[in-house]
Amino acid sequence: MATVTLKNVKKSFGPTDVIHGIDVEIADGEFIVIVGPSGCGKSTLLRMVAGLETVTAGDIHIGDDRANDKEPMDRDIAMVFQNYALYPHMSVAQNMGYGLKIAGLPKDQIDAKVGEAARLLQLEALLDRKPRQLSGGQRQRVAMGRAIVREPSVFLFDEPLSNLDAKLRVQMRLEIKELQSKLGVTALYVTHDQVEAMTMADRMIVMNGGVAEQIGTPLEVYESPRTLFAAQFIGSPAMNVLDAEIKDGSVRLGGVKIAPTDAADGKVKLGIRPEHLKPDPSGPIDMEVQLSEPLGANTLLHGRLRGSEEPFTASLPGVHRTSIGSHQMLKLKVASEDIHLFDPQTGTRY
Amino acid sequence: MEKRVTFKGWLLPVCLIAPQVFISAVFFFYPAAQAVWQSLFIPDPFGLSKQFVGLGNFEFLLTDRFYRASFLTTAIFSVLVTLVSMIPALFLAVLADRLIKGAGVYRTLLIWPYAVAPAVAGVLWLFMFNTRVGVVSWYLGQLGYDWNHVLNGGEAMGLVVVASAWGRISYNFLFFFAALQSVPKSVIEAAAIDGARFWRRFFTIVLPLLSPTTFFLLVVNVVYSFFETFGVIHTITSGGPQQSTTILVYKVFSDGFVGQDLGSSSAQSVILLIVVGLLTVVQFKYIERRVHY
Amino acid sequence: MAREVHGMVEKRGMGLWLTHVLMIIGVLVIFFPIWLAFVASTVSQPEIVRPPMPIWPGDQFLENYKAALFSGVNVPVATMLFNSLVMAVGIAVGKIIISLLSAFAIVYFRFPGRNIFFWLIFLTLMLPVEVRIVPTYEVVAGFGMLNSYSGLIFPLIASATATFLFRQFFLTIPDELAEAARVDGARPMRFFIDIVVPMSRTNVAALFVILFIYGWNQYLWPLLITTDPEMNTIVMGIRQMFPSGDDVADWPVIMATSILAMIPPVIVVISMQKLFIRGLVDSEK
Fold it and tell me: What is the ipTM of this complex?
């Protein structure tokens, strides 16, 4: 068990800076998800914690020790790779026990630990199989098992579910989370999938372009995103962002009052989550519906605002088969606590 | 292509690579440099001293009647070996490809000659065409043809060509067969639906699809006939009669070891080196193209 | 490789039979020299020198092979077989070991001079031993390695085909495996021995077949450096069995020796056919 502390961690590949200085303190036993689009530096950050990439500047502490110059094996970590990285010529048991074998543990201890991990992951029947004889989900479990037997202080996950099909992903998501809280091990988990981030994280780090846009609990990020990027990346369907204006204490869209606010007058970016829009014949938002997607529990309406070319999406509960066809006009309203205002220049939250 | 993940340190990799570098340096680069160096000298007949002649050895070689004849002999020989080894191989591969069952059995039988050393192949063919005891030469005699490759340069050439090509038929067959098996079935079927009959399909669809393999085999077989046929020639004709089967490699050997003319032999090695270099460049150009293919 | 689905373009009936007939004729023609050699190795000398020789095996099989193996002409063929075996295995094993090591160094490390090493090794791809034969002979003679196994083996190891092949293969090993091994605590040599070498098994086996045959079938090099008949390899030794001058060769023994010379490589090729074909097609393409 250990805390992980990153202090102004930077990474450059030659002249290219890929990580611009990340600060975060991770508590013992916390589950941290690093989420962002591809190329944002999230995997590089994880690999620096693992010791697979050198740290250009800043400090990484695992527990009380500065880990920058330690070899991966000396960091008391275990890692689960995106492609599982199982040794193809070794059996499941050998794969799981390889690290212990290198550490010089006697065979009976290795067998005991592997057996215990296998029981935890329901892999007992598969211990003699080779990786190629396993399904994707089973390989995933073996990769987890390999991490568990080392009894590390920190688990590192690099997009571990991205090669699984959708159904299995949901199941494994729960299993990983459950296992982590059972073992009480600190975890860093990298993904590009905001659903995984929302459902698994104690806290998440939303990354973009080598910068941590926001660090917080899933609900904090959802309810009060600190930047436009975080606002649009977290939440599905993505938040609508519109050019708006504040005048006389209210947010106005094309001159129409949307909601009251106490922000100062001027231009702003207005963010409204599609699920916060409510139909209201006297609502201030005038939407022209071009396409509706019935999902069953709710219906997604795609279109644009009257007199505007910008796309706009609303998510209404239930089925709207009859009442809303395409090219209909729809009046909507939004509660004042559900609007998000951002500085149009910097993209930060007001 | 490079690995993203590497290990640190320089001492270990240098140690790992040392055996190969050492062996290459001692048995490869040093001798190759020696060949170039010696090609610039003429040793005296007793081998006690040598005289620097610059490019004199090359000048002499390129005007030497025998050397030019050897060039021509090599050219004829390699063209013939390539043709005689590739055409039957392609024919057999096409036949085997048409079979539903048994192709594997034929393949197993046809691989045999590949494992037979060229020198042994030479002995086998020499035995069949031997002027005293050869079965084939005896039957030819019965038909009124007096076979004597010991005296007749043309017959000698024919015999070393066939003996050299024999084992290569297996090799070429394997490649053609593998290439034919990987021709997409749907392409052939599309052509059949378009009304093309077998031979028409073969020449307009299959052969063009085989062209990468064919080109590769052309280069490889030419290289083979240049260098690896030494054993065949040495066992059957020893370069004779009247040097009619003395290919370039054989001449390096006979001038260097039998004739003890080190300067000339070295110069010949250098010329061969250039020829192989050019062939290798052709081959790599081709491999590069394959990568993008 | 047999395809399971055969569409309308497959030949049926007559055409199929014709294909089989042509195929069998082809195999017989290709096989004829070997068959004739086998027949000659089972008959007596008088039967051969009075042409035409018989076309079916005779009853001298044991006599001829015994004579070849234990007496030979200059030296018992058993000795030559042993020499060939040492040479072929030595070349195959030696080349595989040094190539595995150097390919590992080139692929998994960045060290000063790496590119120069790589290109130097690569250059050796170009030149067969035949081209640099005279100076190589002098080097080997200078080391006192004439008539020795090391003289037979080392000069033929100095080529980079295998290094190049292993390099290609190592590049296909996923990076994540090396990372997983690092996380598991494996140092470079441990990773090499535990992960890289076992994963290369099929490549090693295929290469072994090809190199064994390459070594076994060498002719010019052993011809030059083994002047002592005790060190002759079988492939070059056959030629030494022919008498000089007008004497009649001992054909049954020579043909028995030829058959013995081809048995080991043929066994290796046939028994490891799949591996060998894969190795051949991979290494040459």
Answer: 0.86
What pLDDT band is residue A193 in, cutting at 50, 70 and 90?
very high
* Domain spans in chain C, listed from the N-terminal domain onward: 2-70, 77-283
Q: Which residues contact A261 (CB under 8 A, 6 or more apart)?
A: A246, A249, A250, A251, A336, A339, A341
Q: Do C2 and B101 touch (CB under 8 A)?
A: yes
Would you call C267 an interface residue with chain A, using a CB distance cutoff of 8 Å?
no
Closest-CA residue to B2 (of C172, C112, C192, A14)? C172
Which chain C residues touch B162 with a CB distance below 8 Å? none
Using a CB-CB cut-off of 8 Å, the residues of chain C touching B284 are none
The pLDDT tens digits of the residues spanning A33-78 come to 999 999 899 999 999 999 988 899 999 999 888 988 888 888 889 9
pTM of the predicted structure, to 2 decimals: 0.83
User: CB distance from C190 to chain A under 8 Å?
Assistant: yes
Q: Which residues in chain B are contacts of C254 at CB distance < 8 A? A: 123, 127
Report helix, strand or coil for A260: strand
The answer to whether the CB atoms of C185 and A50 lie below 8 A apart is: no
Say if residue A284 is preceded by a cis peptide, omega within 30 of 0: no
Size of interface B-C (CB pairs under 8 A): 318
Does the CB of C113 have a partner CB in chain A at under 8 Å? Answer: no
Look at C180 and A50 and tell me if their CB atoms are within 8 Å.
no
| CATH architecture for the domain at C77-283 | Orthogonal Bundle (1.10)
The pLDDT value recorded for residue A317 is 87
Q: Which of C176, C177, C183 sits opposite A78 (nearest CB)?
A: C183
Note whether A288 and A329 are within 8 A (CB). yes
The angle at the Cα of A179, spanning A75 to A72, to the nearest 5 degrees, equals 15
DSSP C145-184: -TTSHHHHHHHHH---HHHHHHHHHHHTS-HHHHHHHHHT
Contact C19 B95 (CB under 8 A): yes
Nearest one of A311, A171, A50 to C185, comparing CA atoms: A50
Report chain A residues whose CB lies below 8 A from the CB of C199.
Answer: 87-89
Under 8 Å between Cβ of B90 and B179: no
Which residues, other chains included, contact A254 with Cβ-Cβ below 8 Å and sequence gap of 6+? Answer: A305, A307, A308
Beta strands in chain B (DSSP E): 41-43, 50-52
Distance of CA B137 to the CA centre of its chain: 27
Q: Do C219 and B234 touch (CB under 8 A)?
A: yes
Q: What is the CA radius of gyration of chain C?
A: 24
Q: Distance between CA atoms of A146 and B293, rounded to whole angstroms?
A: 41
Superfamily designation of domain B65-292: MetI-like (1.10.3720.10)
Report d(CA A96, CA A98) in Å as an integer: 6
